[in-house]
Amino acid sequence: MTFILAEDAALKQLIQGYTRSYTQDDGSTVTYTVPAVTVQDEKSNSRPVKVWFGFPDVEIRAQDFPFITIDLIGISQATNRQTSGQVTDGNMNGTQAIVTGKWYTYDIPVAYDLMYQVTSYSRHPRHDRSLMFQLHNKFPALYGRIDVPNELGTSTSRRHLFMESFQKSDRAEGENGNKRLLRNIYTIKIVSEMTPTAAAALISQPTAVAINKNTSGSWVSTDIPDGMYTV
Question: Is a pLDDT exceeding 60 seen at residue 215?
Answer without folding.
Answer: no
